[in-house]
Amino acid sequence: MASININQLPENTLLELFTHVPARELLWNCRPVCSLWRDLIDAVSLWKRKSLRDGFITEHWDQPVADWKIFYFLCSLRRNLLRNPCAEEDMGAWRIDSNGGDRWKVESLPGEHGTNFPDPKVKKYFVTSYGMCLKSQLVDLKAEGYWEELLDTFRPDIVVKDWFAARADCGCAYHLRVQLASADYIVLASFEPPPVIIHQWNDAKWTEVSYTFSDYPPGVRHILFQHGGKDTQFWAGWYGPRVTNSSVVISHTMTRNPGSPTAQPEDEARVAEGFPLFLSFYNLTGHPTLRLLSRPVEGRRSPPSNS
User: Fold this and answer.
1) Which candidate, 164, 130, 135, 134, places its Cα nearest to that of 237?
2) Is-contact 110 89, C-beta < 8 A?
3) Which segments constitute the F-box domain (predicted)?
């Protein structure tokens, strides 16, 4: 029986076959085979088929897609780049930058003088103490599967979210900082809102903070996410802000205008006098180091006996 060259198949049949081949295999192993395969793999129709087959669609079904190939890869890579965001692995994956007071702790929802989280799948949270508590993660984008051309040419939106709450019986100060950095840890873009001050006898409601980095400079290779805070009553124990369900997601959208906050905390936000100043720098090993500059404080107070 005479052999048949695969290239003798109709182009539409070849396209259908290619939709079942992993995307990276298509680009790295299949595309260089011949000019026919190269042209078919570069075709918009192939990547549109693969996107629809894998359930990758835009938020609004009729929203135009500028580049279906890039859209496919961004959708396939889309996930929360922060590990252990909901404290299910205790403090695992987090770097402790500041561990003041009685140190970081993990508690189960809703906690004393707390409220349930909006998403019932979230069961735990991290809680801070009377001294400044900060923790962070450094995301290596190339290690997460994003390559230089994708990051520098298309610069997809980077969406950052965090959730925080106070105890109803104690005031607190919540801090958040997110930085986009180059391969050698030069900061290219930053989001660091003023500390959120929540007063004592509040509703203990969980609040989401969301920010989108758009049209940032080329060269982003790392994302530093840091959050935490402390209580404002200076009580021994764990009366500071509670945080959970944090996320850093590379979106499939590409916006060419500066990012802006997509939500504002409902609680009063202001810079409190005497709050520490945080300076970030990087040592010779390439790992982030945090220096905390603050005034010395007096000894802690005990919470009321009926707390």
Assistant:
1) 130
2) no
3) 3-50
Q: Which long-range contacts (CB under 8 A, 24 or more apart) does 31-40 make?
A: 34/7, 36/7, 40/11, 40/14, 40/15
pLDDT digits (tens, 9 = 90+) for 211-259: 999 999 999 999 999 999 999 999 999 999 999 999 999 999 888 653 4
Per-residue pLDDT of 52-67, as tens digits, reads: 899 898 765 566 888 9
Burial class (CB in 10 A: 0-12, 13-18, 19+), 12: exposed
Tokens of 112: 């004393």
Task: Supply 54's token pair.
Answer: 């894998």
Each residue's pLDDT tens digit, 110-166: 999 999 999 999 999 999 999 999 999 999 999 999 999 999 999 999 999 999 999
Residue 213: partners with Cβ closer than 8 Å, 6 or more residues away:
157, 158, 159, 160, 178, 180, 189, 191, 259
